[in-house]
Amino acid sequence: MSIQQVDPERCTGCGTCFDVCPMDVFRMDKEANKAYVAYPKDCTVCFFCETECPADAIILTPEAAEKMIFPFG
Amino acid sequence: MHPTEVKTHECDVLVIGGGLAGTWAAIRAKEFTDRVILVDKGKISKTGASSFAAGAMLAPQSGDDFDGWLKEIVERGNFLNDQEWVRAILREQPDILDKLQSWGVKFEKNEQGKLLRVAGRAHIGTKIIMFHGSQFMEIMRAQVEKNGIALAERTMVTDLLTSDGCYPTRGRIAGAVGFNVRSAEFQIFKAKSVVIAAGGVWGDSMCVRNLTGDGIAMGFRAGCELYGMEFAHPSDGWVFDRKYKVQGMNMWQAAGMRLINAKGERFMETYVPLLKERAQKAELHLAVAKEYMEGRGPVYIDMRHFAPETWERFRRVIPNFMRVAEILKPWKEKIQFDFGTGAVNAAASGLKNNIFCETGIPGLYAAGQAGGHPGHGTYSVGGFNLASCCVGGRRAGEYAAKFSSQFEKAAVVDSQVERLGNQIYQPLSVKDGITSETLNLKIKAAAGIAGSLFRNEQEIHILLSKLNEIKSGSLHRVKACDAHELMRANELRNYLLCLEMIYTAALERKESRGPHMRTDYPYRDDIDWLKQVILQPCGEEKVVVRLKPLSLYRCSARPEKLGKISPAVPPPEIH
Q1: Contact B209 A44 (CB under 8 A)
Q2: How far is A58 from B109, CA to CA, in rounded Å?
Q3: Does B449 touch chain A (CB under 8 A)?
Q4: Is there a cis peptide before residue B3, judged by omega within 30 degrees of 0?
Q5: Which string of b and e fits B63-77 if b means at least 16 CB within 10 Å?
Q6: Spans of all domains in chain A
Q7: Is the residue at B328 inside a domain?
Q8: Could you give the ipTM of this predicted complex?
Q9: Residue B39: beta bridge partners?
Q10: How many domains does chain B have?
Q11: Which residue among B298, B323, B400, B447 has the highest number of C-beta atoms inside a 10 angstrom radius?
Q12: Which residues make beta-bridge pairs with B364?
């Protein structure tokens, strides 16, 4: 879960998500002039990309990406 | 394997880490010297724990009863607080709050337009104020830029340079090395003084997964002592509905959250009758775990009674939490409540430093969580961390800058640069290795219950031997195919070292104090353990442990009598 993808239909290639991500999960496809999710497992669902994307192109769900362990029961 | 590109930077003061402590350090250093570089592995304003801080900051104001504040903070910190630091924070924080307001940081105000102060986590006489979401660090960044401080972002510093080229050094600081986490370009920083403000050891526990104790590990390798590592405990990785990681506990506590077990009992009333759900973080962790372990789970958090204006405040102060709240609707339903596990040093633990933020290496300073918040004790009241970041960061910047104006720079030893460079890039040359993600999962699997809360000698030994096995058997096999993976590999190396230090210290402290809960010594022992556990590096990442007794003579707040005290939340009885 967490970050799913950048909607290529909406992405304008402005690079905002690439700029703001604390975990650096995005990369820019220079040929297509679009952002894409290169390291989805590192997403921490901080919402910075979603909040700041001017084209509303970020598709994410707020569930944590990693498997959580609950050792107490 | 070295990349061909090398970039060399020269400065008077190098600040490593661009969170709240680091930005304060850089801004302050720039008042005294021209050449200041602020380096961070992310983007400053969106990096580190500060960018996700849940609104609460300790807010002493002139006219407050500072003796009373000190007493409360020291009692909550289980008397291990450096009281000189507490006084410095009480004295200097009011001025810092004025500055922050003049820079435009938005805080919740009362009807008279003054700062609204409330009681949140573990406060009775002490108070916090509430700032609005992520704009705080945006404003810190704007101040850094306005002051003309040079930035080196997306750059991970891995190790320090020393004047004698040795670890642990007998010389002084000469700079640091690292690499760009996108291009892998090698970075050499030649600096007269260095401030480490690179955060604590958080692992996977919170929304920030890259706080791997880089600053603490690099300082330790270079020769700094560590203190209080045993007080690492699971931190703000609160989990709702076993799916969503959320932050904002201080705000929920201030608003009157309730915790309820499967029997419908408000169990915090039993453990901490005075504060109930406004108890200290460690007490909440221990109590919630105990309820689950003794078969009274699941535990729920109840916010259904919060007033509409409370939810409006949350929208301003903790907007990320509200994004999840919109899905779970806690105004309608109670929500299953857990916390993420794994050790987090959010308490007084980190690089040992004094009231001038000096570590044991001349020219090397520590601030923020990397410097362990010496005034915090075992973790005192809510909002202390951020106040300590402001005051500690500002002090570190000032003294590092003054050091740099008094001394010529130390020459960099080329062989040390080469050795550290080879170490950074080693994962790029691993062929049939494991991924950093695989290693991370191995570390998580090793931790278990002893890794988070209830510890005893046998379990700590097992945990340490597992960590050792991972370190000797798996660490050198971590592969990286690009600069990003190289960052993850270097982070895990630091994380492993910090975990080893956390449990080495946990083994040593034979009592229970604050978040450090030993089931084989289930009491606070003020007769034998008003002491710090100090870890001293002695080369090859080996460690010597020593105990440093507290100087009670210098403490104005002391335990009323010295004895053995049962903890508020006793260890679970497992049948």
Answers
A1: yes
A2: 34
A3: yes
A4: no
A5: ebeeeebbbbbbbbb
A6: 3-60
A7: yes
A8: 0.95
A9: B16, B152
A10: 1
A11: B400
A12: B194
pTM exceeds 0.90? yes
Please state whether the peptide bond connecting residue B567 to the residue before it is cis, i.e. omega within 30 degrees of 0. no
Q: Check CB contact of B116 with chain A, cutoff 8 Å.
A: no
Determine the structural domain holding residue B323 and report its residue range: 238-339
Give A63 to chain B, closest Cα distance, Å. Answer: 5
B245, A45: Cβ pair inside 8 Å?
Answer: yes
pLDDT tens digits, chain B, 575 residues: what are they? Answer: 456 789 999 999 999 999 999 999 999 999 999 999 999 999 999 998 888 887 899 999 999 999 999 999 999 999 999 999 999 999 999 999 999 999 999 999 999 999 999 999 999 999 999 999 889 999 999 999 999 999 999 999 999 999 999 999 999 999 999 999 999 999 999 999 999 999 998 876 666 788 999 999 999 999 999 999 999 876 657 899 998 888 888 899 999 999 999 999 999 999 999 999 999 988 999 999 999 999 999 999 999 999 999 999 999 999 989 999 999 999 999 999 998 766 676 667 899 999 999 999 999 999 999 999 999 999 999 999 999 999 999 999 999 999 999 999 999 999 999 999 999 999 999 999 999 989 988 888 887 666 668 889 999 999 999 999 999 999 999 999 999 999 999 999 999 999 999 999 999 999 999 999 999 999 999 999 999 999 999 987 789 999 999 887 778 899 988 999 999 999 988 75
CATH architecture of A3-60: 2-Layer Sandwich (3.30)
Q: Is A28 on the interface with B (CB under 8 A)?
A: no
Q: B290: distance to nearest CA of chain A, Å?
A: 8
CB contact under 8 A, B245 and A39: no
* Cβ–Cβ gap A47/B340 under 8 Å: no
Residue A15 contacts B where some CB pair is shorter than 8 Å: no
Q: How far is B137 from B159, CA to CA, in rounded Å?
A: 26
CA separation for the pair B436, B453 (Å, rounded): 26
